[in-house]
Amino acid sequence: MNASVLPTVAGHAPASFLGIRGRIAIAAVLAILVLVIPIFNLVVPADSVFHLSDYAVSLLGKIMCYAICALAMDLIWGYTGILSLGHGLFFALGGYAMGMYLMRQIGRDGVYKSDLPDFMVFLDWKEVPWHWLGSQSFVVQMFLVVAVPGLLAFVFGYFAFRSRIKGVYFSIITQALTYASMLLFFRNETGFGGNNGFTDFKRLLGIPTATSSMRVTLCVLTGLVLVAFYLMSKAIIASKYGRVLQAIRDAESRVLFTGYNTLWYKLSIWTLSAMMCGVAGALYVPQVGIINPGEMSPAASIEIAIWTAVGGRATLIGPIVGAFFVNGAKSWFTVTFPEYWLYFLGAMFIAVTLFLPQGIVGLVRKLSTKYANSSKRGAP
Amino acid sequence: MTPDLLEDGAKRREAYLARQAAALIAGESGGQGASFGRVVSSTGEVDTAHGGILYVDDITVSFDGFRALNKLTLNIAVGELRCIIGPNGAGKTTMMDVITGKTKPDSGRAFFGSNIDLLRLRESEIAGRGIGRKFQKPTVFEQLSVFENLELALKMDRRVRASLMHKLTSADGDRIAEMLKLIHLKDSGSRTAGDLSHGQKQWLEIGMLLMQDPKLLLLDEPVAGMTDEETERTAELFLSLEGTHSLVVVEHDMKFIGELVNGGQREKKKIVTVLHEGSVLAEGALADVQANERVVEVYLGR
What we know:
The complex is a heterodimer. By secondary structure, chain A is mainly α.
């Protein structure tokens, strides 16, 4: 076989898909997650300069939840070319499934000292509605965290993709879907606490949530899930299935006429992406202590797309970088110049679209190859 | 009834059952006797026992009242290389859309071989049965490498799970390397397809088509944007496929048509079809068609 062909073939070998540097990087991230964060938060005394504050831990955990969403968005948008503006819905559904369990964990410690969640007592309900029947069980609710977003995405995606809805039309319909769901969840009769949503959580698996150790545990768990999803995405993209997805993005009609039924490819990655967002939502809710229909607002979904675009589409590390960069900037801006944050976000999105189509990661890669080339030329 | 008659009947019945069982094991059907008409199947291999690979019969397609195809009838024989010419808007591309399942006609029938009803199948299923199509505008997967483009086109299980588990065998690698050589992209395997020149993209798309191992190739203006040398090579390639594959070539370039018609297996007289306003205007040898007054009027004489 030709020499120029071989590297491409070797590049697909799944055994070496991380490489030495990749493995070291993953090991370093894991070490930071399971050692550095707990030690610097729990062991190092609070007055030390090395102490990691509870605020930092919960911020980190929150951003990593966002990073999972951005990664999920990248699979469907960056690699398959389908822009969803409704991923906030799947995130919120996962969050609500977790929130239901947390509401039942409050037990009789609520304001009304009832077995029912406070908002149900307030509405004068005598027993839990049918969709709350499994809410006492952690296992059932964890199943719902992935099953509800997955099922909704599957059914919605099946009809949308079968009808060949594409491009901006698909984006608008997903946007409408999340908006309609927000209106539905705002209603008290829907049984999810109306516009207040769920809050005042006390326990998770019987353990109090408002402690440093619980905060660190959730943060580390989120990090581990993020790493696992990253590796899973990497394996997916390195497979032939991943190349079919990219082929769909580049020329779907060619894929069809090559004999692939693109419906099942799009539907499978779409459903997986929704489930990943559901998991992110479930990890998010106990860390921030609240879930309400605001998470389903169109703006929330658009933000996920912005993180992905800023970090760099069609690179797996890009969306994670983007989620950290934008949300890091957000927490700094909203403290320093709260009124200018939205202007900054809009300006950043426009700048990235116009000048950095490959996002931050693309810029870094471009600069590093430029640097490598110039140093090569400079050498005697 | 007498006992010996009963016994005789029992023996005959046993012998009959044994024959039936033997036939079942041998995989034979129940014989030819009771066949009142063959069931048109949408699955399985194409049946070309009657010598035809494509039957397009009385197809009409209208878009908002405009008749893109008007009772078009076209038959392609196995191993034939058919050239189709016609002015813009004659319905050439719409015809390919109907054959490949992209457009459903208002009326008419389209069969692949004598057994596969094309109007009942989706694009991907039609491609899987053995019809490959090249688009007018070269359509390749721009962000993937040339090698990966060919790999995706390689004939194999197209389902999601198979793709997830797929590993490239060395035989597949060799096939791709052979194809790279055939389409003159031997040293470009790792290049990004989007960086290729227009002519090279056309070649890559033809290569992807051949990787699918189709029985019928539909080629929509395959040499558009190619240099003279590339055009010549393309004609050579198509002529080498003639006989083992059936080809339908839609083209504007009369020089290329001339090369196709006059090259290759000369003993077979190649037919050229002229389309006009959605139906066949003339059909016959190139010289006859070029001499046809109506053809000259609508197309060649412009």
